[in-house]
Amino acid sequence: MFKNVNAETKANIYFDGKVTSRTLYLADGQRVTLGFMLPGEYTFGTNEMERMVVTQGTMTVLLPNQKEWLTISASEEFIVPANSEFQVKVATYADYTCSYLSEE
């Protein structure tokens, strides 16, 4: 749960509406997105390091420079480096949060 947040009311919409998210700004200035993915296969690019946490459902991910796909279920997470691409497969649905991390 996030407290003391400001939310952007306009959704971030990707892949013809199959992936959507909303951006939240926490009291400490951190930016977080809350999103949902419908079934499909997606490739995402990052500008910043990201921590993805699956909150409901399951996704299978192929992280940069890896050969094996990982299955990520509810309450599990993965980190994606900045300036990279990663692939996601969703069979039913996936609800997630994405936190943007500094590389300190």
Shape: globular
| CATH architecture annotation name | Sandwich
The end-to-end distance, rounded to whole angstroms, is 25 Å
Q: Tally the helices: what do you get?
A: 0
- Return the domain count: 1
String of helices and strands:
EEEEEEEEEE
Biggest sheet layout: 10 strands, antiparallel
Pick out the low-confidence regions.
Answer: none
How many DSSP E strands? 10
How much strand content do the residues show?
over 45%
Q: Determine and state the CATH class.
A: Mainly Beta
CATH topology: Jelly Rolls
Q: C-alpha Rg, in Å?
A: 13 Å
Strand-pairing-aware structural class: mainly beta
What do these coordinates show?
Keywords: Glycosyltransferase, Transferase. Pfam families: Ppnp (PF06865). Belongs to the nucleoside phosphorylase PpnP family. It is an enzyme of class 2 (transferase). The chain has 104 residues and is mainly β. It has a single domain (6-101), classed as Jelly Rolls, CATH 2.60.120.10. The chain has no helices and 10 strands. It has strands at residues 6-7, 12-14, 19-25, 31-37, 40-45, 49-62, 70-73, 77-80, 85-90, 94-101. Strands 1, 2, 3, 4, 5, 6, 7, 8, 9 and 10 form a 10-stranded antiparallel beta sheet that branches.
